[in-house]
Amino acid sequence: MKYLLPMVAMLPLCLSHCTCPDDYRQVPQPHATTVAQVQALSDCQIHHYGTTLLADAPGPEVARALLERGAQPVGKIIRNGQIETGSAIAQTDNARVMRVLLDAGADANVGG
User: Fold this and answer.
1) Residue 78: partners with Cβ closer than 8 Å, 6 or more residues away
2) Span 32-44, pLDDT tens digits
3) Helix runs in 9-94, H state only
4) Lesser CB count within 10 Å: N end or C end of the chain?
5) Please, how many CA atoms are within 13 Å of residue 44, restricted to the half-sphere of its CB?
6) Exposure of 5 by Cβ count < 10 A (0-12 exposed, 13-18 middle, 19+ buried)?
């Protein structure tokens, strides 16, 4: 992905992650079923719940929006108060979302 802004312009985004609480339970668990909801998420919600949101994405548009916001295809999967490391590809049953993740470079061989 090419960045159109100089690195200095991106500094506030980096600093917002520095204030993100370590404990995911301090960050409200988001729901993102539309692109508009994805755009309204905080950086902390993307940081803590991004992989889970990708796994639960209802369609490719939401998955693409999450990836653009920085959600990682492999990371923390948080469900029912339980946390584990896993892959959004392994956790989703939506073939169109899987295709978006694969096109974005996610490794289909990473289990979860």
Assistant:
1) 24, 29, 48, 49, 52
2) 999 999 999 999 8
3) 11-18, 35-40, 43-56, 60-68, 88-91
4) N
5) 13
6) exposed
Tokens of 100: 């978006």
Between vectors from CA 19 to CA 85 and to CA 47, what angle results, nearest 5°? Answer: 30
**Cα distances (Å, whole numbers) of residue 76 to 7, 9, 43:** 27, 29, 15
What span, in angstroms and rounded, lies between the C-alpha atoms of 95 and 83?
24
Following DSSP, what letter does each residue of 5-26 receive, concatenated? S-GGGGHHHHHHHHTS-SSGGG
Helix (H) or strand (E) holding 76: strand 74-79
Burial of 110 (0-12, 13-18, 19+ CB in 10 A): middle
Task: Flag whether the pTM goes above 0.85.
Answer: no
**Burial level of 21, CB count in 10 A (0-12/13-18/19+)?**
exposed
